[in-house]
Amino acid sequence: MIKKVIYFIFAIFGLSFGLTLGSQIWHMFNLQMELLNNPIVNAIIFMILYLLLGFFIAPLIEKIIKKMLDILAQQTTYDIVMGTIGIFIGLLIGYMISLPFSNFNIPVLSATLPFILMFVFAIVGFQTIMSRKDEWKNAFQRFQKPMEPEVEVESQMLERKADDNFHRYKLLDTSVIIDGRIADIVKTNFLEGILVIPNFVLHELQLIADSSDSLKRSKGRRGLDILNELQKDHSVNIEYYEGDFDDINEVDSKLVRLAKLIDAVIVTNDYNLNKVCEFQNIPVFNVNELANAVKPAMIPGDEMTVTIIKSGTERKQGVAYLDDGTMIVVEDGQYYINERVPVIVTSAIQTNAGRMIFAKLSQAQIEE
Questions:
Q1: Main-chain dihedrals φ then ψ at residue 338, nearest 5 degrees
Q2: Residue 37's closest CA among 56, 49, 22?
Q3: Whether this model's pTM surpasses 0.70
Q4: What angle do the packed helices 251-262 and 271-279 form, to 10 degrees?
């Protein structure tokens, strides 16, 4: 998208240059052709030349723009507003100081000095405002209505805790979008803040949806349907990140870089990505861990009826599954494969990958 805008700007410059100065350029090179005196022809010629120039310069300009956007993404709204005010004040002062020099009619000095002064004072104004932004913030707060001392202390404590524990942006990775449960979680209002969908995650979803493998294709289309569902829900605050990291190939690594850049939380159900984020001190919301946390706890002595699906790894064990995918290892269940039998829970273990329950056949089943 950025490259297209750059090409468009170069084309406009080329058209303008050709219409206004095209014929004069040809006269400078002693090219006397009637066709070159036509403004429309000159506009087309210089538009093509500028587009060729833009083809070589556009990657550099795009890289600079993305770098600037990444820097701005790290700044708070307050910093951006104060910096803009500083630049505006600097430009205004530089323009006022340059007015006397523009009337001297000195060929080089009158034309270039105003721009130099405005540029220098814009930098000075920006640095001056930003170096004292905390003082300005305190000055603005003095005009606010004073609060009672006890309430003020309590408010500051609550604000500090929110800053320490609350992360505004929630990055969604490909796996959690395909999983689909994120849509239900968001509707419960347990997930606060802004959901961010990076462009590279959307691109990966599109590649999966276009895969020749029918299973992958259905997963990719499910993920796109989930995103459309979230976008149509006006109660969901969702944004798209258009940037990319050209020096990184893996989508997970790009997510980690972006999370550090904008101080975001990664929402995923990918076990490996969870471990990488834990190693790099990036907060993670793991949907699998949330699902395990809200499941009703199974305690020894609870009874249930399950269908033995297959043999276990140990001798005489049988394996069954609950509707949510929880594995149940049944002692002596090997003899009841494809049968529905009552069992009693003996123990349960919880891991990041899921929950496993150990059970034995009920006394009534044994007597039969």
A1: 70, 20
A2: 22
A3: no
A4: 40
